[in-house]
């Protein structure tokens, strides 16, 4: 029944279509189309007015400055890409950047309003007509394994496949590697590691499995969860062998043991792991093609044979014996998110702009099976003002949540679904993440938030209560009560298990937080070998997948730290098996 509903939604999505057409545009060269000068134009972006100052010579758009731009930090990269695209096309008639549609709309409106003032009479239409779109066929290529996506899963798979003797090409639509992995902060979950043993943490693979199944509402595929837990320690060793620092350990929501591995001092894990994987891929000579979008998987529901790639210069096929899909989830595509979970329409997201679920489009001809597409997770502690995620590790290291009545309202380390719902039930559908100087000093990721100016600071509880406009006396009672629970090692109000430290050392800090879309748990159905299956439950020969593009590992709620484990563990499995399959 559920599968039927999913297919209706997928068909709907296919008809809506989310991919921008990538075609080569012909330019009008050496023909005067502008009156040289600098012109201004305005548009409406996601977060307000976008104003562009556009400088043109007689034949060319020379420079674009976004002189007014209020979009979030996550929109800066796509905005730069769009400006580069307009300059390259020498025209404002280009497609927006996937995943940043409203920001793109604002920029394009502003640039085109400026260009309208610059065009010589009649030239605008002439230029547009001349820029008639024309696909160019480039020369095809051949390799052993082609990997779609250069995020954490794709890079990991590329390394394993290469180390197992395959020639590999990685195809990435964004102008940089890393995907969502570069935003991961909290850490990577693993049980029975050498690092845990050194710290005397008594964890087991079985407890890791239990936590993951319970956290996912037992909707997870237990076989995949077993693979995740059993291979976690080995993968931590593998990453450390490549030079990763995973020697600090913390606790995330829904975990009953400290098993979230992260760099020394609690530094953000994602960019570090991307740097390690990228350096290794370069050392191995792996070819990574950026700004190259896969638009089709070649083959059918029984066997695949490569991919079709689109670039600004044209299209070509990469013929391959195996294809690994590691293209990530769809958290940045709110139209898709809302089709699967209408309650999330209009939500912000923690995802990078490329997380748009392109697999729905490029795999539509091979009848892949999808699982759990409607399972979409919100992360509870995201700043509503700019969609910046404040890592769960802050709570793991001792922070609490208070509402506008200055009271706690939830076990802060319950699963994300529970904490998100609790936040939404508060006044303004948000709350304050609250901690003291000792928590700040325990986690270096917090220094980043401090330097970015995200934290509200008060020397005393009274001062910070004033800044938050909440009742100081109630806040004092809340903190005293909580500190008592820490001392007693029991929280009779909310049954919080891990209370790392009391909140008693000023200054105190707070940041307003609310839920935003974080992880799409559904995706391609895979087996324990990382092979993709079709809608008749048969393996599609030569097709593998890993990471957030797959479904089944996390059930209805992914535990913090399990994404980094998922991408690296299943990335390794897919890479190795793809390479071995072609020998
Ligand atoms: O795995 C995650 O999503 C995670 C640990 C996020 C975070 O809060 O840092």
TrEMBL record:
Free-text comment on the cofactor: Binds 1 or 2 FMN covalently per subunit. Binds 1 FAD per subunit.
Domain FMN-binding: 45-118
E.C. code: 1.3.99.33
Database matches in SUPFAM superfamilies: FAD/NAD(P)-binding domain, Succinate dehydrogenase/fumarate reductase flavoprotein, catalytic domain
Cofactor: FMN; FAD
Coiled coil spans: none
Protein family: Belongs to the FAD-dependent oxidoreductase 2 family. FRD/SDH subfamily.
Name of the protein: Urocanate reductase
Organism of origin: Fusibacter bizertensis
Species classification: Bacteria, Bacillati, Bacillota, Clostridia, Eubacteriales
